[in-house]
């Protein structure tokens, strides 16, 4: 027998079979919260929500995982947890088809495709895709840096940044490409690299059509068209389109050269400059001319070399025409 839902919310149009559930539902819209926690004073719109909340204070976790025995205060938390054991990922991204075990992760992931950054720093105006990223960013303004590197004394606002930094001292590169075997310090760098093999560049510039493997790279690229340079050096007043370029620039003022070559001891202000320098010692020449096969240690040397072929081609054409 079909249940008739004749009571309808005029705000969101949700329907109910009885008036009482509709009255309870209306509290969500009007903000009414008549149920108060006697321990911490927090207010709730439903008695059931207060009951679940009270378990935080009592430590009661009545819902147990049958696989590992872990306890939870809510059935929804238990259901989400069991997907770790089953591998079930029922929530799918409509754009790329990627699956997730938690619904909220789909919404967070979708911002990669839309480029939406709803969390804004009230101090500098920078936007973020996640609230946790904004919280970490705010520590830059507050100066809260509680994590210290015991090797060089450098301070960090987040423990994860300290752990990433330590890999520079140890030389550890735990992230390995399964296709070509190349190793990286960070998983994010490996993900970027992997798209070289897969050809995954899903982000397209609407102006020039250039493709990018990450939405942040597209956002940075767009500043070339808009000529937007939001990052300002407070010392000399020069503006930059990327925050990383500003940090690199600041080292010229401070004289900071924190990247050291372990072979000869030479210091550099940029990690990229150190990596380029290391090719002198290793003899590595990763840039190859597709026309003649000659290899180079630096990309700009390859670019300069290609002009030989371009110049020869133009001269040859002119000779033929004449």
Automatic annotation (TrEMBL):
Name of this chain's protein: C2H2-type domain-containing protein
Signal peptide: none
Entry-linked PANTHER family: AZ2-RELATED, ZINC FINGER PROTEIN 142
Presence of the UniProt keyword Membrane in the record: no
Gene Ontology, cellular component aspect: nucleus
Gene Ontology molecular function terms on file: DNA-binding transcription factor activity, RNA polymerase II-specific; RNA polymerase II transcription regulatory region sequence-specific DNA binding; zinc ion binding
Keyword vocabulary terms for this entry: DNA-binding, Metal-binding, Nucleus, Repeat, Transcription, Transcription regulation, Zinc, Zinc-finger
C2H2-type domain span: 7-34, 35-62, 63-90, 91-118, 119-146, 147-174, 175-202, 203-230, 231-258, 259-286, 287-314
Subcellular location: Nucleus
Pfam families: zf-C2H2
């Amino acid at each position: 027998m079909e249940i008739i839902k004749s009571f309808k919310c005029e705000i969101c149009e949700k329907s109910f079979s009885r008036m009482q559930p509709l009255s309870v539902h209306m509290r969500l819209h009007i903000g009414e919260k008549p149920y108060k926690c006697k321990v911490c004073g927090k207010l709730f719109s439903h008695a059931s929500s207060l009951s679940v909340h009270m378990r935080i204070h009592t430590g009661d976790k009545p819902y147990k995982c049958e696989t590992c025995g872990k306890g939870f205060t809510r059935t929804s938390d238990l259901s989400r947890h069991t997907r770790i054991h089953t591998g079930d990922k029922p929530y799918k991204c409509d754009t790329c088809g990627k699956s997730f075990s938690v619904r909220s992760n789909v919404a967070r992931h979708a911002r990669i495709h839309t480029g939406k950054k709803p969390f804004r720093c009230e101090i500098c105006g920078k936007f973020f895709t996640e609230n946790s990223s904004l919280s970490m960013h705010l520590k830059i303004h507050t100066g809260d840096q509680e994590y210290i590197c015991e090797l060089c004394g450098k301070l960090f606002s987040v423990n994860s940044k300290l752990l990433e930094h330590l890999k520079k001292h140890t030389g550890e590169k735990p992230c390995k490409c399964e296709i070509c075997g190349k190793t990286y310090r960070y998983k994010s760098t490996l993900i970027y690299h992997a798209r070289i093999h897969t050809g995954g560049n899903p982000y397209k510039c609407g102006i020039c059509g250039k493709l990018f493997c990450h939405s942040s790279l597209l956002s940075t690229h767009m500043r070339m068209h808009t000529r937007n340079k939001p990052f300002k050096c407070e010392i000399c007043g020069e503006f930059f389109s990327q925050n990383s370029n500003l940090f690199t620039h600041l080292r010229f003022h401070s004289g900071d050269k924190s990247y050291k070559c372990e072979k000869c001891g030479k210091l550099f202000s940029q990690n990229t400059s150190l990596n380029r320098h290391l090719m002198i010692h290793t003899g590595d020449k990763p840039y190859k001319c597709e026309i003649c096969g000659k290899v180079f240690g630096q990309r700009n040397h390859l670019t300069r070399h290609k002009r030989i072929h371009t110049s020869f081609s133009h001269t040859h054409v002119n000779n033929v025409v004449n």
